[in-house]
Design a protein that fits this description.
34% helix, 16 strands, binds zinc ion, 5-stranded antiparallel β-sheet, Alpha-Beta Plaits, 5 domains, binds (2R)-2-hydroxypentanedioic acid, single chain, alpha+beta, globular, Uridine Diphospho-n-acetylenolpyruvylglucosamine Reductase, domain 2, binds flavin-adenine dinucleotide
Length: 504
């Protein structure tokens, strides 16, 4: 990227002064050079783990501008990294070297909302929480919710196929996304409008069996096929009654027992079932100042308990209270749960949720966090956390202080385990003790090395643990079909992506 590129890119943007930030000096004073710190937050990820060095950030205001930018980047073979709210956890959304950063920050309009079908059509840069705030007064809600809601963009959610806290109830984005608009990195900067209202062809429909369902390819593509600029998504009705309970159980077998019972007894009103271990709770209490919801702490030397968070959402509070009440009664009576708190008001709902939602933030306050996001049968989940701890103890990494703690938590309802290994520092020795061992251990359990965070830079070399060679080869061909010159997030997502044969 040089001054000529900056001058050209500026000429494509309707508001160049606010839509392009660069540290490259202008030869003729036609733009004001930014200070390096103005680009820092776009060059570094949320965990402070991946650092790039891009001198140019563009924030187009329309799909047409994205198209012009990608067309130019295609012509000049300029590498581009699409970026939403930069909350991704696998190094996918930040440059590795000096790729152009294309942010969706400037595209955050709601295009339309149909209050009969509940279909929302919005720009890709809409912040998840803002979209929720738009929908709530209308009696609707977004079908996904995550701890990063205040920053992540809907385009980023789609590009990572984010799961989150209520996938158990509302399903994955592969089911709720009805239409996608994306710009391709080709010679025309082609705008591909798939089932988008007003985009040509069929609009946002629940049912449309006319050909390959191309929009599905963009869900979880992590910016390797095109830049998502708009979305149509099906939003569910906002429930009028909520309950949240956090329960303490003696062991992981009881977590599974409670899950089975809960699904059986609560049925359609269950909207979340999360778990965290005792190390996780201690970390949150220490680093967020939250109060324990339990009357007593486990005794010194006693087995460490596990915790589950159960949420119900429905339309009849008395009905839901009765169902949850009888579930808790039966679990207490048969000794499956040892302690518990049921939220009495909205403030308590929030504070119980924050015990679970604060885990990533608390881990970040304690140290440098090696994060693993794994899918596997629930029964095999926690043995992996225990094996990890044993491995670190054998290598002396806990004694010498390199690893401060290892915590396990996640979305039990979706078979999704999060392991956060909190280290004193980013440390090659720690990393090599974890990887590829953790991926092998996951594959042995027939699991997936990424349940919801994606591949990014972190897991690109390891996809083979979860996908066969022929499947990877087909994915590589699809990638080249959409991105013939390999300009979108090269070196990420798939193994040896940068060595794929280029076209044109
Ligand atoms: P970014 O981080 O900016 O980008 C993520 C990837 O998508 C990158 O590869 C980027 O190139 C690509 N991308 C972004 N926008 C576009 C676009 N418009 N077009 C094409 N490609 C694009 N994830 C979950 O699944 N479940 C959780 O519960 C969850 N909780 C989280 C909690 C916290 C506190 C944090 C920090 C993260 C959490 N995440 C979770 C991970 C992250 O928030 C999600 O992956 C989120 O969907 C990323 O959105 P973003 O806008 O920040 O994307
Ligand atoms: C969550 O479920 C997120 O809280 C983040 O997916 C998990 O930070 C993590 O490892
Ligand atoms: Zn998660």
């Amino acid at each position: 990227l040089d001054a000529d590129d900056v001058a050209h890119l500026r000429s494509l943007l309707s508001t160049p002064d606010s839509s392009l930030v660069t540290t490259i000096p202008s030869p003729d004073g036609s733009w004001k050079e930014a200070a390096p710190e103005d680009l820092v937050s776009y060059n570094v990820d949320w965990m402070d783990k991946y650092h790039g060095n891009s001198p140019v950030l563009v924030k187009p205001k329309s799909t047409d501008e994205v198209s012009k930018v990608l067309q130019y980047c295609y012509q000049k073979r300029i590498a581009v990294v699409p970026q939403g709210g930069n909350t991704g956890l696998v190094g996918g959304g930040v440059p590795i070297y000096d790729e152009l950063i294309l942010s969706t920050e400037g595209m955050n309009q709601i295009r339309e909302f149909d209050d009969v079908s509940g279909i929302l059509t919005a720009d890709a840069g809409g912040i998840l929480e803002s979209l929720s705030n738009f929908l709530h007064p209308k009696g609707y809600m977004m079908p996904l919710d995550l701890g990063a809601k205040g920053s992540c963009h809907i385009g980023g959610n789609i590009s990572t196929n984010a799961g989150g806290l209520r996938l158990l109830r509302y399903g994955s984005l592969h089911g709720t996304v009805l239409g996608i608009e994306a710009v391709l990195p080709d010679e025309n900067g082609t705008v591909l409008s798939i089932n988008m209202p007003g985009g040509g062809g069929a609009g946002a429909l629940r049912k449309d069996n006319t050909g390959y369902d191309l929009k599905q390819l963009f869900i979880g593509a992590e910016g390797t096929l095109g830049v998502v600029t708009g979305v149509s998504i099906m939003t569910p009705r906002l429930p009028s009654a909520y309950n949240v309970a956090v329960l303490s159980v003696p062991d992981f077998a009881s977590v599974q027992k409670v899950f089975k019972e809960t699904r059986g007894q609560l049925g359609e009103i269950l909207s979340a079932f999360e778990f965290f271990d005792h190390e996780g709770l201690e970390m949150v209490l220490e680093h967020t100042g939250a109060q324990s919801p339990f009357e007593s702490a486990p005794e010194e030397g006693a087995e460490k308990p596990f915790y589950v968070l159960i949420e119900t959402s429905g339309s009849n509070k008395d009905h839901d209270d009765e169902k949850l009440g009888s579930l808790l009664e039966s679990l207490l009576e048969n000794g499956t749960i040892s302690d518990g708190t049921l939220a009495q008001d909205e403030t308590q709902v929030q504070s119980l949720w924050s015990l679970r939602e604060s885990l990533p933030e608390a881990a970040g306050k304690l140290g440098r966090v090696y994060k693993y996001d794994l899918s596997m049968p629930v029964k095999d989940m926690y043995s992996l956390v225990e094996e990890a701890r044993e491995r670190f103890a054998e290598k002396g990494l806990d004694k010498d202080g390199s690893i401060k703690t290892t915590v396990g938590y996640g979305h039990i309802g979706d078979g999704n385990l999060h392991i956060n290994i909190v280290a004193k520092d980013w440390d090659k020795k720690v990393e090599q003790t974890i990887e590829p061992w953790i991926y092998e251990a996951t594959a042995k359990r027939n699991g997936s090395i990424s349940a919801e965070h994606g591949l990014g830079l972190m897991k690109a070399p390891y996809v083979g643990y979860s996908k066969t060679d022929p499947a990877i080869a087909v994915m590589q061909q699809i990638r080249r079909l959409f991105d013939p010159r390999g300009i979108l997030s090269p070196a990420k997502y798939l193994p040896q992506a940068s060595e794929l044969p280029l076209q044109g």
